[in-house]
Structures are given as C-alpha cells and as structure tokens.
C-alpha cells in the first residue's frame, strides 16, 4: 500500500454565493506526480490555494506529512513549495537576487540560500542569466525562474499550477525533464495543466475537476479505458467526454 503524503478531506470554498470548491477529497501518495485537470473555472487554483495554506476552506481539512493544516499550518508550510499560475517574483531584481530572497523567506541562512539558488539556476538553465533582471527575461525564462523559486528550501511536496503555459517547446521540455528528475529524487508533486498529453506523460494518477467537484480520478490508462482500448484513446477525448464541450467563461 503506498504511503499517503497529502490527504484533502471534503474541502469546500465559496466566493459570495459561488461554490468554487464543492466537497473535494483525494489523497496524493508519497513520491507520486498527481495531476489535477479541469476546464477554466473548475476550481483547481482555489484547491491549490487551500492545500498550500494560502486560503482557509469553509469546511474540510488537509493533512500533509501527518500535519493537519487547521492545527499546524506552519508545519505544513515547511514541507511545501508553490509555483503559482500567475508569475510571482520581483521584476526589478536579478534571477539570483530573487532566489536568494525567496530562500531567506522560507528560513534559509544566507550561505545556504546562495548555494541552493546556484543549484536551481543551473537546473533551470539560467546560470548565464543569474545577474540579469527578471523583467527582461523571455516568457520561458520567467516560467523557469517561477519554478526555481518554488524549489528553494527543497520542499517535499511541490504544487505546480500550470507551469508550462504560454512557452515554447524547448522551455516546456526542460520543465518536463526537471519534473521527472525531481520525482525520481523522491519529490511529491501536484500538477495542473490544460495540456492533456503532459498529464498523460508526467502523472501517475489524474483527477478531473469540473464545477468545483472531482468527476473522475484514476491512472491515465484507467481513465482512457472508460472510452475503449487505452492505446487508441487520448486523455483529451476522456476529458471532453467527462466535462462536456460547452465553454466555461
Ligand atoms: N478570490 C476570488 N473571488 C471571487 N471568485 C473567485 C476567486 N477566486 C476564484 N474565484 C472563482 O472561483 C471559480 C474557480 O476558480 P479557479 O481559479 O480555482 O479555477 P481554475 O480551475 O484554476 O481555472 P483556470 O483553469 O482558468 O486557471 C471561478 O469561477 C473563479 O471566478
Ligand atoms: Mg487556475
């Protein structure tokens, strides 16, 4: 039996009268890459904001590494890293300065923060641009620095909210390879994307959300077998079957 690392239990969150998250429960196993898919407005980012202690749920609880978010949010925060959907860094600072700053924010000493910053700049192929201001970076480089920031402090659980949106195949491939390498190193990952082939390639299990609820949760192969022979079905076909073809926004 795999070991649970994150358990979300019956999460609810409304904004005004709109139920953005409506009774979400799932488990992510240690070392797993878990995909969270869903159309625009499904509630993926709201779920991630709850799981990463940014947003308090109206109901429900989250346990990470044995720590309840309601009772010990600080312990949860020490285990996680977040790569947000909206780019989050200081545009006027260099790549290196950003990483060191965010490293200090998660409690690293100066020497350790610089050492980790060097490691993650290298991992993301940004060593040559370490001293360059981030607002001058290309879209792909901005996404890569956003991911490097999330890695500061070596989190055990990483939340990636659409880390490959709007970037070229080269940057996207580098991000894929990094994610595979991090998982091989034992990191647990929650991944959201609108690119179905990414989820198929990278995730051991995938949850499909729609209207604030999880409507399916299985391995990519298990989901594809809903429609027929898994080799002849794409995850996108399953996604459209489960969530419909109507526009959401
Ligand atoms: N702070 C907020 N105030 C009001 N409504 C919000 C807020 N945050 C999210 N919502 C609403 O909650 C719903 C879920 O939004 P959320 O951002 O979680 O969706 P998502 O699945 O991440 O979508 P996308 O794929 O577009 O990123 C949407 O209808 C959104 O408009
Ligand atoms: Mg989102």
Q: What's the CATH first level of the domain at 1-79 and 202-249? A: Alpha Beta
The total of helices stands at: 9
Percent helix, as a range, is: 25-40%
Number of strands: 10
The strand line-up of the biggest sheet is 6-7-8-3-9-10
Distance between the termini: 40 Å
Second CATH tier, the architecture of the domain at 1-79 and 202-249: 3-Layer(aba) Sandwich
Shape field: globular
Give the cofactors and ligands: adenosine-5'-triphosphate, magnesium ion
Low-confidence stretches: none
In N-to-C order, the SSE pattern is EEEHEEHEHHHEHEHEEHH
Average pLDDT number: 94
Largest sheet: 6 strands, mixed
CATH topology-level name of the domain at 1-79 and 202-249: Rossmann fold
Integer-rounded radius of gyration = 18 Å
Beta-strand residue fraction: 25-35%
Kindly name the structural category: alpha/beta
The CATH superfamily label of the domain at 1-79 and 202-249 reads P-loop containing nucleotide triphosphate hydrolases
Can you offer a commentary on this structure?
With 249 residues, the chain is of the alpha/beta class. It has a domain at 1-79 and 202-249: P-loop containing nucleotide triphosphate hydrolases (Rossmann fold, 3-Layer(aba) Sandwich), CATH 3.40.50. 35% of the residues lie in helices and 25% in strands. It has helices at 44-51, 73-77, 95-105, 110-123, 139-151, 169-184, 196-202, 220-224, 235-243; strands spanning 4-15, 18-29, 33-37, 59-64, 67-68, 80-83, 157-161, 188-192, 205-210, 213-218. Strands 6-7-8-3-9-10 form a 6-stranded mixed β-sheet, sandwiched between helices. Helix 3 runs parallel beside helix 5. The longest helix has 16 residues, at 169-184. The termini are far apart. 41% of the residues are buried. The structure holds adenosine-5'-triphosphate and magnesium ion. Adenosine-5'-triphosphate binds at residues 15, 18, 20, 38, 40-46, 85.
